[in-house]
Amino acid sequence: MERLSRVPSAARIAIGLLVVALLALTIGGCGGSSSASDDEEASFTGSGYPGVDAANTRKADSTIDSSNVSSLSVAWKAKIPRRPRGC
To answer: What is the pLDDT of residues 10-32, one digit of tens each?
Structure first.
């Protein structure tokens, strides 16, 4: 506490204002950016959805169907390690 009392009050005020200004700049710079202009609506089309399309039909474009699924073979394998004891 003794050290703080040696600092002039004007310096303490200046440091406080600097800290507040830096916080305001940091918070003001977060978020709010958008690649779309204000008059342009966002487009939610394409296969970026987990359900493949916006209707969540999970219908992927594929040549695999119920008539040829029995002729499929293994394309790759991955060994899954056992969990260690105690887990």
So the answer is: 888 889 999 998 888 888 776 66
* Cβ-Cβ contacts under 8 Å for 67 (sequence gap 6 or more): none
Residue 2 DSSP class: H
Tell me the residue range of the domain where 6 lies.
1-27
Q: Name the pTM for this structure.
A: 0.31
Q: Say how far apart CA 11 and CA 6 lie, in whole Å.
A: 10
Of 59, 54, 57, 33, residue with least CA distance to 44: 54
12 domain residue, yes or no: yes
| In-domain check, residue 53 | no
Q: Are 28 and 22 in contact (CB under 8 A)?
A: no
Label residue 74 by pLDDT band (50, 70, 90).
Answer: very high
Q: Is residue 3 part of a domain?
A: yes
Q: How many CB atoms lie within 10 A of CB 58?
A: 10
